[in-house]
Design brief:
2 copies of one chain form a homodimer. The first copy, chain A, is α/β, with parallel strands linked by helices. Chain A has 3 domains: 53 residues, lambda repressor-like DNA-binding domains (434 Repressor (Amino-terminal Domain), Orthogonal Bundle), CATH 1.10.260; 121 residues, Response regulator (Rossmann fold, 3-Layer(aba) Sandwich), CATH 3.40.50; 130 residues, Response regulator (Rossmann fold, 3-Layer(aba) Sandwich), CATH 3.40.50.2300. Chain A starts with a helix and ends in a 6-residue tail after the last strand. The model of chain A has no long low-confidence stretch (mean pLDDT 96). At the A-B interface, α4, α5, β2, α6 and α11 of A face α4, α5, β2, α6 and α11 of B. Chain A binds a DNA duplex through α2 and α4. Chains A, B: One of its GO terms (molecular function) is DNA-binding transcription factor activity. Chains A, B: Keywords: DNA-binding, Repressor, Transcription, Transcription regulation. Chains A, B: It holds the Pfam family LacI. Chains A, B: InterPro entries: HTH_LacI (IPR000843), LacI/GalR-like_sensor (IPR046335), Lambda_DNA-bd_dom_sf (IPR010982), Peripla_BP_I (IPR028082).
Chain lengths: 325, 325
DNA sequence: TTGTAGGCGTTATCAA
DNA sequence: TTGATAACGCCTACAA
């Protein structure tokens, strides 16, 4: 690989001049500029980013922490983050954390050693404490970490209320909820939204809230149990779409017809919802948009000296499909 | 951030000694070693990886190119690559290429500037030419790039033959094929495997091969058309599972019962196949394993001076589910 | 067993 | 308008 010195020698100038040409700063005569450009071309020279990073203390890299990229909710978000970071000439580093604290700390350290410029973090295990020694900007995505850390989220509680209202509006009279993990704050908000709508109903019982784990299998098992013990249930608001698919599967296996005997609505708006049969009605998040927003927010913070805390809340939207129609 | 000099000063030794302690090489007295370690602890010192990279010309980073991480086939592969690279203390960089040549070249350049240590590439648009100037090891994954570049793949043609044989064995007598894009070599192999089994059948016609694009929508539309024009078709071998889901959807919409009227088998073994109704029979690739193997192969090549070309072919396995039972 | 010093490739400051 | 040079933080001959 050619270095700046090779270019300088070939163009018969100093490295300083080459640097000026590359970075478009400082004065440089048109003639010499051309000589330098020719030399760069001829040698196929590309500046060494590592040396640059060392000098500047910044690497033009951004990291995204997600619990697990094989969970279909995250790829689209990751995609958005990558697209935006690329557009701003950043390199994108993806980290699967499994929500494991030790793993997250390892990543934080390893990436700081590489002078990463900022972090976008989806985590329900990380707290402000773990992050207090981080010197670069951080944006919490999908799940709030602390009031002092910028965040991009959706109206989980309001959206959930809307989901339950919708089930009522299409005639459901006994509505249950398959909930996400209680240590994930958006799962708690979604359950609260459900409770807002049903808590005062005379038919409501705690039995109608079943814990799922935001995954397919647990939700299917939970739904089978629910439907067998509570045959009066005619609507289910499910904490996320992956679990919604599990519920639809359970309905088939216990012989309940969807949507005739049972209406099901999920949350998230992942693509799978459109590929299953019946297709799944859902409160759709603008997944790509929130990922993109987080990336833009982070880059803004990186480029500004005084990084103010910003919080952005997006709105989810009802998407009606076969599971309720 | 503390530097090696701060540590040296605090421990009252030279930076060379600190370096020796950190890297466990060269002799260093037990007493001074302890002093150094204490100083490191006290200052919370972590070596600057950028400086290291500059000196060594290597960054301990590995990049994975995939067409699009939102395609559910890739996350599990990416996950495997990340797990293995982490285990070897490499940092993982994910790149979505959309199979766009310009984008891939941009990534190659950007990452070379960062002294990336190696590439794992899933691409059907890249050729040997594009890669000839790359100085670090490369492993082609899922799709072969050239005989001179190491690869990890599966027995696409053999697996496809097996799929068609299976359909025959359960009684199908008119078997069609929804094919992947013709510029993707594994899609071509899969079609060839299909042809191997049906080409000589008296009932076979070219009409039974319909082009899909490895995605849901195109496959659904293709299947609707096929089933409407060729009602005699009683079995479909689909080029991948995502298209398989589309075919199942199409079957419902044209009123064909699966598996009674129509048997469907896919290829890949992605998780979606188990969540849809009916569940999808498939020729399952060991997706995680091939990703992990590619990563191990690449790391081996990075660590060896004489990088021999290696080719590994995994075997796909029939997974019977409701779409054929 | 330890220290000195040069260099990895850039950038930015200061002179010229 | 250009050049010489000192960093950035680390590692490794070579000396001591």
């Amino acid at each position: 690989m050619a270095t700046i010195r090779d270019v300088a020698k070939l163009a018969k100038v100093s490295t300083a001049t080459v640097s000026r040409v590359i970075n478009r700063n400082g004065y440089v005569n048109e003639g010499t500029k051309k000589r330098v450009k020719d030399a760069i071309e001829q040698l196929n020279y590309l500046p060494n980013d590592v040396a640059r990073s060392l000098f500047k203390g910044r690497s033009k890299m951004i990291a995204l922490f997600v619990p697990d990229i094989t969970n279909p909710f995250f790829p689209e978000m990751a995609r958005a983050v990558e697209d935006v970071t690329n557009r701003h000439d950043y390199t994108f580093v993806l980290c699967n954390t499994d929500n494991d604290i030790a793993k997250q700390i390892d990543y934080l350290n390893a990436l700081q050693q590489k002078s990463v410029d900022g972090f976008i973090i989806v985590s329900s295990s990380m707290t402000e404490e773990h992050l207090q020694h981080i010197q670069v900007p951080i944006v919490a995505l999908d799940r709030i970490i602390s009031p002092d850390i910028s965040s991009v989220t959706v109206n989980n509680r309001g959206g959930s209320r809307q989901a339950v209202q919708y089930l009522k509006s299409i005639g459901c009279t006994r509505i249950a909820h398959i909930a996400g993990p209680e240590h994930v704050n958006n799962a708690v908000y979604r359950m609260q939204g459900y409770l807002d709508e049903v808590n005062n109903a005379d038919w409501f019982t705690e039995d109608y809230i079943i814990p799922g784990k935001y995954n397919f299998d647990a939700a299917r098992d939970a739904a089978v149990k629910l439907l067998n013990t509570h045959s009066e249930v005619d609507g289910i608001f499910v904490g996320n779409d992956l679990m919604g698919a599990g519920v639809l599967n359970a309905a088939v296996s216990v012989g309940r017809k969807v949507p005739d005997d049972l209406a099901v609505i999920g949350f998230d708006g992942i693509a799978i919802g459109e590929t299953i049969t019946p297709t799944l009605t859902t409160m759709a998040q603008p997944i790509y948009d929130i990922g993109a927003k987080a990336a833009e927010m982070l880059i803004k913070q990186i480029n500004s000296q005084e990084p103010a805390v910003m919080n952005e809340e997006f709105t989810v939207q009802l998407v009606e499909r076969q599971s309720t129609l």
